[in-house]
Protein backbone atom coordinates (compact mmCIF):
# COMPACT_ATOMS: atom_id res chain seq x y z
CA UNK A 1 0.00 0.00 0.00
CA UNK A 2 1.11 3.54 -0.70
CA UNK A 3 1.49 5.88 2.22
CA UNK A 4 -1.21 8.59 2.21
CA UNK A 5 -0.12 12.00 1.00
CA UNK A 6 0.93 14.29 3.84
CA UNK A 7 -1.67 16.74 5.06
CA UNK A 8 -1.24 20.24 3.69
CA UNK A 9 -0.43 23.02 6.13
CA UNK A 10 -1.70 26.56 5.85
CA UNK A 11 1.91 27.52 5.17
CA UNK A 12 1.90 25.28 2.06
CA UNK A 13 -1.35 26.72 0.75
CA UNK A 14 -0.40 30.35 1.43
CA UNK A 15 2.91 29.84 -0.38
CA UNK A 16 1.06 28.49 -3.42
CA UNK A 17 -1.48 31.31 -3.39
CA UNK A 18 1.19 33.97 -3.11
CA UNK A 19 3.19 32.44 -5.96
CA UNK A 20 0.08 32.75 -8.12
CA UNK A 21 -0.97 36.16 -6.79
CA UNK A 22 2.13 37.90 -5.38
CA UNK A 23 1.39 40.31 -2.57
CA UNK A 24 3.84 42.86 -3.97
CA UNK A 25 1.71 43.21 -7.10
CA UNK A 26 -1.21 44.58 -5.06
CA UNK A 27 -1.98 48.30 -4.99
CA UNK A 28 -0.32 50.26 -2.20
CA UNK A 29 -3.67 50.96 -0.51
CA UNK A 30 -4.80 47.34 -0.59
CA UNK A 31 -4.76 44.86 2.31
CA UNK A 32 -4.13 41.38 0.95
CA UNK A 33 -2.64 38.11 2.10
CA UNK A 34 -3.18 36.16 5.30
CA UNK A 35 -5.60 37.90 7.65
CA UNK A 36 -6.23 35.16 10.21
CA UNK A 37 -4.89 31.70 10.88
CA UNK A 38 -1.90 29.70 12.16
CA UNK A 39 0.58 28.87 9.40
CA UNK A 40 1.14 25.45 10.95
CA UNK A 41 -2.54 24.46 11.06
CA UNK A 42 -3.65 21.67 8.71
CA UNK A 43 -5.78 22.53 5.68
CA UNK A 44 -8.18 19.89 4.40
CA UNK A 45 -11.05 22.07 3.18
CA UNK A 46 -10.90 25.42 1.38
CA UNK A 47 -13.91 27.65 0.64
CA UNK A 48 -13.69 30.35 -2.03
CA UNK A 49 -15.97 33.41 -1.92
CA UNK A 50 -16.02 36.96 -3.21
CA UNK A 51 -16.66 38.61 0.17
CA UNK A 52 -15.87 37.54 3.76
CA UNK A 53 -19.36 38.33 5.03
CA UNK A 54 -20.80 36.90 8.22
CA UNK A 55 -22.96 34.53 6.17
CA UNK A 56 -19.96 33.29 4.19
CA UNK A 57 -17.96 32.77 7.38
CA UNK A 58 -20.89 30.80 8.81
CA UNK A 59 -20.90 28.68 5.65
CA UNK A 60 -17.16 28.04 6.06
CA UNK A 61 -17.62 26.99 9.67
CA UNK A 62 -20.63 24.77 8.99
CA UNK A 63 -18.80 23.00 6.17
CA UNK A 64 -15.72 22.55 8.30
CA UNK A 65 -13.44 24.69 6.14
CA UNK A 66 -9.93 25.28 7.43
CA UNK A 67 -9.33 28.17 5.03
CA UNK A 68 -11.53 30.83 3.46
CA UNK A 69 -10.10 32.50 0.35
CA UNK A 70 -11.85 35.72 -0.66
CA UNK A 71 -11.33 38.37 -3.29
CA UNK A 72 -12.40 41.34 -1.20
CA UNK A 73 -10.57 42.27 2.00
CA UNK A 74 -12.14 42.04 5.43
CA UNK A 75 -10.00 44.77 7.02
CA UNK A 76 -9.34 47.20 4.19
CA UNK A 77 -9.59 50.19 6.50
CA UNK A 78 -8.14 50.39 10.00
CA UNK A 79 -10.24 49.20 12.91
CA UNK A 80 -9.69 49.93 16.59
CA UNK A 81 -11.76 47.11 18.02
CA UNK A 82 -12.75 43.57 17.10
CA UNK A 83 -15.55 43.39 19.64
CA UNK A 84 -18.56 41.47 18.36
CA UNK A 85 -20.68 44.61 18.60
CA UNK A 86 -19.44 45.47 15.08
CA UNK A 87 -19.75 43.30 11.97
CA UNK A 88 -15.97 43.36 11.45
CA UNK A 89 -15.36 42.30 15.02
CA UNK A 90 -17.96 39.57 14.81
CA UNK A 91 -16.34 38.33 11.60
CA UNK A 92 -12.86 38.15 13.11
CA UNK A 93 -14.21 36.44 16.23
CA UNK A 94 -16.15 33.89 14.17
CA UNK A 95 -13.06 33.07 12.09
CA UNK A 96 -10.85 32.59 15.15
CA UNK A 97 -13.44 30.62 17.13
CA UNK A 98 -14.14 28.40 14.13
CA UNK A 99 -10.50 27.76 13.36
CA UNK A 100 -10.98 29.19 9.87
CA UNK A 101 -8.01 30.97 8.34
CA UNK A 102 -8.65 33.85 5.92
CA UNK A 103 -6.51 34.75 2.91
CA UNK A 104 -7.35 37.66 0.58
CA UNK A 105 -6.38 38.09 -3.06
CA UNK A 106 -7.70 41.46 -4.25
CA UNK A 107 -5.78 43.79 -6.57
CA UNK A 108 -3.02 41.19 -6.77
CA UNK A 109 -5.63 38.86 -8.29
CA UNK A 110 -6.94 41.68 -10.50
CA UNK A 111 -3.55 42.15 -12.20
CA UNK A 112 -2.58 38.48 -12.43
CA UNK A 113 -2.62 36.72 -15.79
CA UNK A 114 -4.98 34.98 -15.72
CA UNK A 115 -6.70 37.23 -13.24
CA UNK A 116 -10.13 38.70 -12.63
CA UNK A 117 -10.36 40.62 -15.91
CA UNK A 118 -8.83 37.77 -17.93
CA UNK A 119 -11.51 35.41 -16.69
CA UNK A 120 -14.19 37.98 -17.57
CA UNK A 121 -12.70 38.47 -21.05
CA UNK A 122 -12.60 34.70 -21.59
CA UNK A 123 -16.24 34.38 -20.52
CA UNK A 124 -17.21 36.91 -23.19
CA UNK A 125 -15.27 34.99 -25.84
CA UNK A 126 -12.65 37.66 -26.51
CA UNK A 127 -9.63 36.72 -28.65
CA UNK A 128 -6.30 38.49 -29.22
CA UNK A 129 -6.35 39.72 -25.64
CA UNK A 130 -3.99 42.41 -24.37
CA UNK A 131 -3.77 44.60 -21.26
CA UNK A 132 -6.05 47.62 -21.13
CA UNK A 133 -3.33 49.58 -19.35
CA UNK A 134 0.09 48.99 -17.79
CA UNK A 135 1.42 50.83 -14.76
CA UNK A 136 5.00 49.85 -14.06
CA UNK A 137 4.92 46.06 -13.82
CA UNK A 138 1.14 45.96 -13.18
CA UNK A 139 -1.28 45.35 -16.02
CA UNK A 140 -4.94 46.24 -15.48
CA UNK A 141 -8.03 45.24 -17.43
CA UNK A 142 -8.14 43.47 -20.79
CA UNK A 143 -8.97 44.34 -24.38
CA UNK A 144 -9.90 41.74 -26.97
CA UNK A 145 -11.89 41.00 -30.09
CA UNK A 146 -15.21 39.31 -30.69
CA UNK A 147 -15.20 36.67 -33.43
CA UNK A 148 -17.59 38.88 -35.42
CA UNK A 149 -19.12 42.30 -34.98
CA UNK A 150 -22.55 42.34 -33.34
CA UNK A 151 -25.00 45.02 -32.34
CA UNK A 152 -24.66 46.56 -28.89
CA UNK A 153 -28.01 45.03 -27.95
CA UNK A 154 -26.83 41.57 -28.99
CA UNK A 155 -23.59 42.05 -27.12
CA UNK A 156 -25.46 43.08 -23.97
CA UNK A 157 -27.41 39.82 -24.23
CA UNK A 158 -24.08 37.95 -24.48
CA UNK A 159 -22.85 39.67 -21.32
CA UNK A 160 -26.06 38.82 -19.49
CA UNK A 161 -25.81 35.17 -20.54
CA UNK A 162 -22.15 34.88 -19.51
CA UNK A 163 -22.57 36.36 -16.03
CA UNK A 164 -24.69 35.32 -13.05
CA UNK A 165 -28.02 37.10 -12.75
CA UNK A 166 -28.18 40.11 -10.45
CA UNK A 167 -30.94 42.26 -9.06
CA UNK A 168 -29.80 45.27 -11.07
CA UNK A 169 -29.33 43.44 -14.37
CA UNK A 170 -27.15 44.91 -17.13
CA UNK A 171 -27.11 48.68 -17.69
CA UNK A 172 -26.11 49.88 -21.15
CA UNK A 173 -25.31 53.31 -22.56
CA UNK A 174 -25.20 53.60 -26.34
CA UNK A 175 -27.03 52.96 -29.59
CA UNK A 176 -28.64 49.48 -29.40
CA UNK A 177 -28.01 49.02 -33.14
CA UNK A 178 -24.40 50.24 -33.03
CA UNK A 179 -21.89 47.57 -34.05
CA UNK A 180 -19.18 46.45 -31.65
CA UNK A 181 -16.23 44.12 -32.02
CA UNK A 182 -13.31 45.42 -29.95
CA UNK A 183 -14.18 45.05 -26.26
CA UNK A 184 -12.48 46.40 -23.14
CA UNK A 185 -13.26 44.82 -19.78
CA UNK A 186 -12.41 45.50 -16.15
CA UNK A 187 -13.90 43.38 -13.41
CA UNK A 188 -15.25 45.46 -10.53
CA UNK A 189 -15.16 49.25 -10.38
CA UNK A 190 -13.78 50.77 -13.56
CA UNK A 191 -15.00 54.31 -14.21
CA UNK A 192 -11.48 55.65 -13.61
CA UNK A 193 -10.24 53.96 -16.82
CA UNK A 194 -12.13 55.84 -19.50
CA UNK A 195 -8.95 57.44 -20.91
CA UNK A 196 -7.39 54.00 -21.27
CA UNK A 197 -10.54 52.66 -22.91
CA UNK A 198 -10.57 55.47 -25.46
CA UNK A 199 -6.87 54.95 -26.17
CA UNK A 200 -7.43 51.24 -26.70
CA UNK A 201 -9.86 51.82 -29.54
CA UNK A 202 -12.52 49.70 -27.88
CA UNK A 203 -16.06 49.87 -29.24
CA UNK A 204 -17.56 48.98 -25.86
CA UNK A 205 -16.37 48.85 -22.27
CA UNK A 206 -17.69 46.30 -19.75
CA UNK A 207 -17.13 47.07 -16.08
CA UNK A 208 -19.15 47.92 -12.96
CA UNK A 209 -20.04 50.61 -10.42
CA UNK A 210 -20.38 53.27 -13.11
CA UNK A 211 -21.31 56.61 -11.57
CA UNK A 212 -23.53 59.27 -13.12
CA UNK A 213 -21.00 62.07 -13.67
CA UNK A 214 -18.08 60.03 -15.06
CA UNK A 215 -20.45 58.16 -17.37
CA UNK A 216 -22.18 61.32 -18.58
CA UNK A 217 -18.82 62.96 -19.28
CA UNK A 218 -17.55 59.87 -21.09
CA UNK A 219 -20.64 59.73 -23.30
CA UNK A 220 -20.36 63.45 -24.00
CA UNK A 221 -16.75 62.94 -25.10
CA UNK A 222 -17.93 60.12 -27.37
CA UNK A 223 -20.57 62.44 -28.90
CA UNK A 224 -23.04 59.58 -28.68
CA UNK A 225 -20.72 57.16 -30.45
CA UNK A 226 -18.10 54.68 -29.28
CA UNK A 227 -16.98 53.50 -26.83
CA UNK A 228 -20.35 52.40 -25.54
CA UNK A 229 -20.62 51.42 -21.88
CA UNK A 230 -21.95 48.33 -20.12
CA UNK A 231 -22.31 48.21 -16.34
CA UNK A 232 -22.65 44.51 -15.49
CA UNK A 233 -22.39 44.74 -11.70
CA UNK A 234 -19.46 44.45 -9.31
CA UNK A 235 -20.33 41.05 -7.86
CA UNK A 236 -21.18 39.53 -11.24
CA UNK A 237 -18.05 40.69 -13.08
CA UNK A 238 -15.70 39.45 -10.35
CA UNK A 239 -17.40 36.27 -9.15
CA UNK A 240 -16.28 34.28 -12.21
CA UNK A 241 -12.70 34.47 -10.91
CA UNK A 242 -13.42 32.20 -7.96
CA UNK A 243 -13.52 28.99 -9.98
CA UNK A 244 -10.36 29.99 -11.85
CA UNK A 245 -8.58 30.80 -8.58
CA UNK A 246 -9.61 27.47 -7.10
CA UNK A 247 -8.47 25.49 -10.15
CA UNK A 248 -5.13 27.29 -10.34
CA UNK A 249 -4.50 26.70 -6.65
CA UNK A 250 -5.23 22.98 -6.92
CA UNK A 251 -2.88 22.76 -9.88
CA UNK A 252 -0.16 24.62 -7.99
CA UNK A 253 -0.60 22.22 -5.07
CA UNK A 254 -0.26 19.25 -7.40
CA UNK A 255 -3.84 18.14 -6.77
CA UNK A 256 -5.26 16.05 -9.61
CA UNK A 257 -9.03 15.89 -10.23
CA UNK A 258 -10.60 13.67 -7.60
CA UNK A 259 -7.66 14.00 -5.22
CA UNK A 260 -8.53 13.64 -1.55
CA UNK A 261 -5.75 15.63 0.11
CA UNK A 262 -7.83 18.82 0.06
CA UNK A 263 -11.49 19.52 -0.72
CA UNK A 264 -12.55 22.82 -2.26
CA UNK A 265 -15.85 24.56 -2.76
CA UNK A 266 -16.97 27.86 -4.31
CA UNK A 267 -19.53 29.53 -2.07
CA UNK A 268 -23.07 29.68 -3.40
CA UNK A 269 -23.93 32.66 -1.19
CA UNK A 270 -24.63 35.74 -3.28
CA UNK A 271 -22.87 38.65 -1.61
CA UNK A 272 -24.26 41.22 -4.03
CA UNK A 273 -25.79 43.81 -1.67
CA UNK A 274 -28.79 44.66 -3.88
CA UNK A 275 -31.95 42.57 -3.57
CA UNK A 276 -34.49 44.10 -5.98
CA UNK A 277 -35.21 47.09 -8.23
CA UNK A 278 -38.40 49.04 -8.85
CA UNK A 279 -39.46 50.91 -11.97
CA UNK A 280 -36.66 49.87 -14.33
CA UNK A 281 -37.84 50.28 -17.94
CA UNK A 282 -35.29 50.51 -20.73
CA UNK A 283 -37.80 51.61 -23.38
CA UNK A 284 -39.09 54.42 -21.14
CA UNK A 285 -35.51 55.54 -20.50
CA UNK A 286 -34.82 55.61 -24.26
CA UNK A 287 -37.85 57.83 -24.86
CA UNK A 288 -37.16 60.13 -21.93
CA UNK A 289 -33.96 61.68 -23.24
CA UNK A 290 -31.61 61.56 -26.22
CA UNK A 291 -28.28 59.80 -26.01
CA UNK A 292 -25.69 62.22 -24.48
CA UNK A 293 -23.89 64.01 -27.26
CA UNK A 294 -26.43 62.85 -29.84
CA UNK A 295 -29.09 64.69 -31.78
CA UNK A 296 -32.56 65.02 -30.20
Helix count from the secondary structure assignment: 11
Poorly predicted sequence stretches spanning 5 or more consecutive residues? none
Rounded mean pLDDT is 91
Find the CATH topology of the largest domain: Udp-n-acetylmuramoylalanyl-d-glutamate--2,6- Diaminopimelate Ligase, Chain: A, domain 1
Strand line-up across the major sheet: 7-8-10-11-12-9
User: What spatial form do the alpha-carbon principal axes imply?
Assistant: globular
| Structural domain count | 2
- Most strands sheet: 6 strands, mixed
How many individual β-strands? 13
InterPro entries: DUF34/NIF3, DUF34/NIF3_sf
Keywords: Hydrolase, Metal-binding
Subunit structure: Homohexamer.
Family: Belongs to the GTP cyclohydrolase I type 2/NIF3 family.
What would your notes on this structure say?
- The protein is an alpha/beta fold and 296 residues long.
- The chain folds into two domains: 102 residues, NIF3 (NGG1p interacting factor 3)-like (Udp-n-acetylmuramoylalanyl-d-glutamate--2,6- Diaminopimelate Ligase, Chain: A, domain 1, 3-Layer(aba) Sandwich), CATH 3.40.1390.30; 137 residues, Udp-n-acetylmuramoylalanyl-d-glutamate--2,6- Diaminopimelate Ligase, Chain: A, domain 1 (3-Layer(aba) Sandwich), CATH 3.40.1390.30.
- 33% of the residues lie in helices and 24% in strands.
- It has eleven helices and 13 strands.
- The strands form three sheets. A six-stranded mixed sheet has the order 7-8-10-11-12-9, sandwiched between helices.
- Helix 7 links the parallel strand 10 and strand 11.
- Helix 2 runs parallel beside helix 3.
- The radius of gyration is 21 Å and the shape is globular.
- The chain starts with 7 loop residues before the first strand and ends in an 8-residue tail after the last helix.
